[in-house]
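QUALITY CONTROL LOG
STEP: pairwise intake check
CHECKER ROLE: data steward
CRITERIA: each record must contain a sequence immediately followed by its structure tokens, with no blank fields

ENTRY 1 OF 2
RESULT FIELD BELOW
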Amino acid sequence: MRKSLDINLALQGGGAHGAFTWGVLDRLLEDDRLRFRWISATSAGAVNAVALASGLAQGSREKARESLYKIWHAVHKAGVPDLARLNPFLNGFTRQNSISQMASMWSPYEFNPLGFDPLRRLLTDHVDFELIRAKAPVELLIAATHVASGRPRLFRQDEITVEAVLASACLPTLHHAVEIDGASYWDGGYSANPDLVTLASESPVGDTLLVMVAPRTQNEHPTTVRDITIHSNRLQFNAPLLRDIEVITAVRETSGGLLAKGRLAPLYKHRFHLIDGGEITGQLNPESTVKPDWNIMTYLHGAGRDHAEKWLDAARSSIGRHDTVDLAKHFFPGLEGGVLGRELKPRRAQSSKKSVAEKVVK
């Protein structure tokens, strides 16, 4: 009997581009050696997480794959046009203009006064939240942003409801804030996208695979109003992840293995792995994140499966042993002297050979 490989998942948000993560999970579920333990997820990542958890709670990996497919097919069938059908004028408007243009002219409280959100019915129809709370074999951390303070709120296993996922995926330019226990919440991407620090410091499992959807950089300088808005949004939603990686790097730079103490001490030894879909999604129209097109979504699903296949070939044997990505070098390339102003000490996992992340990209 082959030994199982326990691993955590950290799933980034990204709207319809989260179909890339669907493809990654679809392929990983085919490898029965992998056992998912904790999942930290935000927005579209949260949708993937609960679909996965719901399927696993039904007793099989095949059920989880089926659940993910049903969710994404339903996203395609619902789409944004369902929102527009509430108002014939809006329906005509969206045929001629982008969703982002519409959102810049009216607030969702004006163009959608009833607060209609097609994602609510989609989740209710395809995810068994009661079963997740009772039997899911994975621990969930679903991030949303507390509107009043801007702080992240992590909904845990016994708190996972349809409202928690809606809050995690609530873009305030398109949807009403989601109210839970008297507090209002927006998309978790503003504060944790996803939360790596809590996952790596609390999970008893020492390996975490981060699945990224958003591009890390944009080489072309934005000059139009549209491009500046898109780029500033990307920077805003990537900032929480970069902040977490700075914290992890700081712990590793300033603490020796025997000196690390306190809540963040586990970060020193935690092993990180990465599947980065940013190069794929960066080639798409940014507005495709809010326009679920089945051709684009199946393309992203296929790309996700391909990236996961390459990652498994390169990194499977490293799970439980060492990192397969240097987070500081990957996210802060060319930064002299490390994030804290001095050269990073080489970790046991690093060598003169190319990193697994580089192999996967190629």
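ENTRY 2 OF 2
RESULT FIELD BELOW
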Amino acid sequence: MKTKEGLWEEIKDKLLENTGITITRFDSKRESNSIAQIKGERFIVDVKPEITQGNKGIVLQQLKDASRKENLPVLLITKYIPSAIAKSFVEEGINHIDAAGNCNIRRNNLLLIIEGKKTERLPKTNQPRAFQEAGIKLIYCLLVNPDNINKSFRELAELSRISLGSVSAIIQELVDSKFLLKTRNRKVLKNKIDFLKRWVIAYNDVLRPKLFIKRMNFINKSEYSNWSNLNLSSISEKTLWGGECAAGMMTQNLAPASYTIYTDAIWQSVGKSLKLIPDDNGKIEILRLFYGAEEGNTVSPLLVYADLMGSGDSRNIETAEIILNDELQYLK
């Protein structure tokens, strides 16, 4: 994988090759960022190796924070960004350029748009076991209740629905990576906000796609205005609201544009009870529950936070911040 410095040099060369325009770099007051100048226009630069479905929400939040603190438009430099995410970033006012030279940079009279250059995704490297499927399930149990870390390995295996051997290996990985501190008498989670961000990215990139069951719509579209009155307990297996619906219930700050349901039931049962029909473009997504859900109508605030951040939608990210500050403050 290229270093940030190497990636900077690569896009600098590509921009000159494709447009004849030079990009110049200056130091910034913020150690993690630098300033770029293109034809007299300045940008705060953030270099990210790759943008994925899992990290797009967190990256978007970081970019907007950097722009606000420097009072400059942001320029994202990345090796690879999927075209759909690139388009959504443009809509959010985020300028970007990738290693192939594709870019969308707008500032006053400066307009640079290059599309269609072939880019290659970074090769998949061996991810730590902690951020693969079993680890994501175990970490969920630790983040949703940090006291769980002091349960026995056998209890953690039952709670997270993974093997006893996996628990042992993953716990040791978390110790080695400084997310878990072991003392003589107990274990404590460390660097919890970084730990949360790593888990959110892994959840959306690795586990969430595997939980997807079906996309559906209401038979009667007018039911969307009455979604909050639906009785999910009429479904015999545990079924809960997630995503924007759960966030709206928790904060009274969000009217859902998409509808997420987590369930232990088969999709046919959910459809029959809620009067839904399969639709590949439907607004309702049905996902498999992966943990023993507590009582209530919604999944945990932790899972709602992950859903919102994974959406990459700015209004969802704002609501996710409210949930982080109000419901997940124990992780701060």
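INTAKE CHECK: passed for both entries
DESCRIPTIVE NOTE, ENTRY 2: DSSP finds eleven helices and 14 strands in the chain.
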